[in-house]
Design goal:
By secondary structure, the protein is of the alpha/beta class. The protein contains 15 helices and 16 strands. The chain has a 5-stranded mixed β-barrel. Helix 9 runs parallel beside helix 10. The structure holds S-adenosylmethionine.
Length: 428
């Protein structure tokens, strides 16, 4: 989501005549787009922000813009006091405070309303920033902003605001604009992307949006993330099964395998219901890959409750498991009402157990691709000089070739597989 937001800001700044520089010391404007989903992300953002102070001291004309979840959607006087050298504070997904500041600074405040209105109209006409022009094969479109679900551990609803689906027309014209700029793959984004349209009376569902995107000539692949198990409808799964451009890859977090922990997290489903959902996804979409997210060490999680999560992962054999150690986030229900009682070393131990388990599972799943010829969409050359691409199931594949493979979907025979990637050669 932050990558998508950053692209929008870069594109808006280019419309004002700014362009990208690699060196912070040469910049007139520095934007720090932040994530605070875990303490480690927040620490990193604060560290980077502190490192910008000497630049501002040296060049008081420099405009520093702090953006994203560290700022949040509400006014944040404490943050402003703590970082007086920051010129502009912007909530997630919103370049307008920075645009306003820059226009006022340039004495163009009379153009402000007109420019912001124009940008709002152009919203569905996203232009890829200069640095990505010609390179970008795959791009994101946020379709659900914010989140209203309120899982007890999660800070996102507090920082990204309430759930709001974007206008379907805006999404479609943005997709057309990206395809005209040679993008081949679009990933629709939302904290709970399968809730798309449910907060509005007259919007299509996610399945409806996928069907409409499917008609765009030149668009090869469509993905969406992240889904919540409770909103994963048969309609969505049928579209994935029946529409060839909609890729057979579902990201649907479980978070924990124990019912009491799931209830404490306020996730709204049980271990059994999740198992049934995974069985249904696999039945409807043969060859599908499924990714999940898991948090270990949630307040009060006992050894046997953790074992339920371990057993669930061992039984279901997911393609990918994004693992996290519970991190208390200020203001969330779990931080206010539950003791962060699982010691850090125990969280690490549980994390590593799942990591090892998942490594074995992924190795086993990937081995089934050996010697098969499968379509790969090539994105770019890696640092080692190999072409990097992805399977329909979102697995990384590297291929040696002197030809320019970028943007092409080509059959590749898989020669080697490991837990995180595969190697292959172009099928003759
Ligand atoms: N909205 C999606 C969902 O929860 O279904 C995923 C978005 S969130 C940015 C990505 C992941 O971060 C979550 O799925 C969760 O596993 C993890 N996460 C969120 N809050 C956390 C916390 N307080 N401590 C550790 N991990 C956390």
């Amino acid at each position: 989501m932050n990558v998508a937001d950053s692209m929008r800001v870069a594109s808006s700044l280019e419309k004002l005549g700014y362009h990208n520089t690699e060196k912070p010391a040469e910049a007139d404007v520095i934007i720090l787009n932040t994530c605070v989903v875990r303490q480690s992300a927040e620490d990193k953002a604060i560290g980077r922000l502190s490192s910008l102070k000497p630049l501002k001291t040296k060049n008081p004309d420099l405009v520093i813009n702090l953006m994203g979840c560290l700022v949040g959607v509400k006014d944040n006087p404490k943050l402003k006091k703590r970082f007086p050298y920051v010129d502009v504070f912007s909530p997630p997904s919103d370049p307008s405070p920075l645009i306003k500041h820059l226009l006022e600074k340039e004495g163009k405040s009379h153009e402000l309303d007109e420019t912001l209105t124009r940008f709002a109209y152009m919203d569905g006409d996203l232009v890829i920033p200069d640095t990505d022009q010609g390179n970008l094969v795959s791009s994101f479109i946020p379709v659900v902003l914010g989140c209203s679900h309120a899982c007890t551990y999660c800070i996102i609803p507090y920082r990204r605001g309430i759930e709001k689906s974007r206008d379907p027309q805006e999404i479609l014209s943005e997709a057309h604009a990206l395809v005209q700029q040679s993008v081949k793959e679009i990933t629709l984004l939302g904290q709970i992307v399968d809730r798309y349209g449910l907060d509005q009376t007259d919007y299509p569902t996610l399945a409806g949006i996928l069907r409409r995107l499917h008609t765009i000539d030149g668009l090869e692949r469509i993905r969406f993330l992240t889904s919540h198990p409770n909103y994963m409808t048969d309609e969505i799964l049928d579209v994935v099964a029946d529409y060839p451009k909609v890729m057979p890859h579902i990201e649907v977090p479980i978070q924990a395998g124990n019912d009491q922990v799931l209830e404490n997290m306020k996730r709204g489903y049980t271990n059994q219901q999740y198992r049934e959902l995974v069985a249904k996804i696999r039945e409807k979409i043969p060859g599908v890959s499924i990714a999940t997210d898991i948090i270990v060490g949630f307040p009060g999680e006992t050894e046997s409750q953790f074992q339920d999560t371990y057993d669930l992962l061992a039984d279901l054999k997911m393609d990918v498991a994004h693992l996290a150690r519970y991190s208390p986030r200020t203001g969330t229900v779990s931080e206010r009402r539950m003791e962060d009682g699982v010691p850090d070393e125990e969280k690490w131990r549980r994390f590593r157990l799942l990591e090892d388990l998942q490594e074995g599972i992924a190795t086993e799943i990937h081995a089934t691709y050996l010697s098969k010829s499968i379509p790969i969409l090539f994105e770019e050359k890696s640092k080692k000089g190999r072409w990097r691409g992805r399977t329909e199931t979102n697995k990384l594949v590297f291929v040696e070739s002197n030809e320019d493979l970028r943007r092409q979907v080509l059959p590749v025979t898989i020669d080697w597989t490991g837990p995180w990637s595969m190697l292959g050669h172009l099928t003759n």
